[in-house]
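Model the whole thing, not chain by chain.
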Amino acid sequence: MDPREFCAQTRLAIVAGKGGVGKTTVSAALARMAADAGLSVLVVEIEGKHGLASAFGAPSLTYEEQELGPGIRGRTLTPDQALVEYLEDHGLRRMSKRLTRTGAVDVVATAAPGIKDILLLGKVKQLEQRKDVDLVVLDAPAAGHAVTFLLSPRSLLDTVSVGPIRDQAEDVLGMLTDPTRCRVLLVTLPEETPVNEVVETAFMLEDKVGIDLGPVVVNSVYPRVEGLDVDPQDAADAADIGLRPGEADALRRAAEFRMARQELQVEQLARLADALPLPRLLVPALFTAEINVGEIEVLAAALAQSVEALAPAEVP
Amino acid sequence: MTATFADMATGCQVVVCCGPGGVGKTTVSAALAVHGASAGQRSVVVTVDPARRLGDALGLDTLPDTPHRIEGDWPGELWALMLDPKSTFDSLVRKYAPRPEQAEAILANRFYRNIAGALSGTQEYMAMEKLYELHASGDYDLIVVDTPPTRNALDFVDAPRRLTRFLDNRIFRLLMLPTRVGLKAVNAAAQTFLRTVSKTVGGQVVSDAVAFFQAFEGMEDGFRDRAQRVLDLMSDEGTAFVLVASPRRDAVTEAEFFAEKLSEAGIPVQGLVVNRMQPRFGTGWAPEADRERAKTLAATPLGPLWANLADLHALADAEDREIAGLVAGIAPGPVVRVPLLDSDVHDLAGLATVGGHLFPAHAAAAEPATSSPGGPP
């Protein structure tokens, strides 16, 4: 499938997954891929983490939208600012100051759980409806919060019987359950626990929220290297190449390590394929600890390649 | 300040493991508790959201919020407890309510039932509260707490104060004193506020909240004292905070932020565990030299072998650079690098493998007869 076509299938891509699986990296690579395919992209982060900004070479993202590169803009969203904006939009500017100052926000948020999430999602919906943006990429809250976050409109509809917040929850739910407007890309690693967790999350999102799931993005997949199954000393002797002391041992142990990891990953990818009827997009492991502009370019290109390998019929 | 994790597991009464999500905090916490038991201590690990198989291995699939004994080949005792913030909170309410009816009124209130799930920091506070309760019971020599993955680094330290501040909330205090003279102006403002909130989210929500604060009247002092004692325990000499991280940029950034905030709060981080490190194979070469050999030997069967060694070597170097600042900040506390393991840790044998890295001197005794971590033997 063509990456442009892939990115244009929906207006809001919510990138979700447990902590440590590389959600932010995948969000950045997805945004870059969409921009490279000619779309105008807005990448949105909930609360101030630093990863997304540095992936685009920016010091930090703010509540004010900023240009992050050709075709890509970025911003953050926080519940408190979303609340203040909501109140101001409803003619309650003075009340908003008072609410935040007295800590009454916490009281209200506790009285109606999910209200902060609804306000955030309401703001996301506003962004999704913008004419000048083709795709909004949302780097969803970390840890186990993603399901709670996306379930918030349904939970709120259970507790709140009237009022504008209820209308807002209904609007948000309308967006979340319309596949042409929104879908979730779950991110995982080719390892046992992350695979178990992504399977669980996928079923919960589908059953409880009714949200459309795009392909699962598997991050940090070892690029396959062939020819590691060779004894270094034998190979050196045969080719008449000298090895210094310890080198043959280091080469052999490194090769064995890589082969064992590759094999584990293949097993876990197979488990994932068995457990979830969703196509998979693979993002390669990079042999570096930091993710900057250059790395994101490499990952975006790899992601695009993986998208191209998707059969059009495979995508729900 | 202890020099090794072994000293920490035997010399401290409380160890709090904190750090970003997905880095193996539960595993490290459990390995510390297992070590305590092996050293003859009565140890207990308090965890929040263990990966299912590890939870099963620790018997946490049974009763939440109640310590569960794990049998094993150690001279001490090993207990595990799965935190349930809601029932911890319930018992606090029962403890501080002057009359049982008052406790029941609070427990039945819808607003109260939302607190554990919705008020940010409550889970963290209850983890610390549980820690205090276990400590005060005198039943354990070592209590290890695996903290919930948290967005705000200071939630553990700040949560008790935050909750008491919340329970003291001014607007609601005023609501409880509707007739007191002199407060009329403020009270009118409170009424306006309530009307607005009612219009926005519905009247039921507001009446639930008011009923809750009315029922809670008089219990704030008990809660505040308790919170203070919990805070005192956290800054006690016998309590150590251990940072758990992985060598990825985002995890390191978050861990550094954690360490900084804790130290600002007067709680120094006393040890660092970096999980999932790329193991090294051979020393003394630069990855660039490996890469060069891969190029010159590209046409031979040695080419891919050198290229692979260069990749893994470059990653190990990058990870070392990444964690250098974090490591320097922990000195002279112990720092342990645990290599990427062959499989996820989900049983006592896996914990022993991690323990082998955390407590090197005890590795021979603790290591089970499985393959060594980080690569095939």
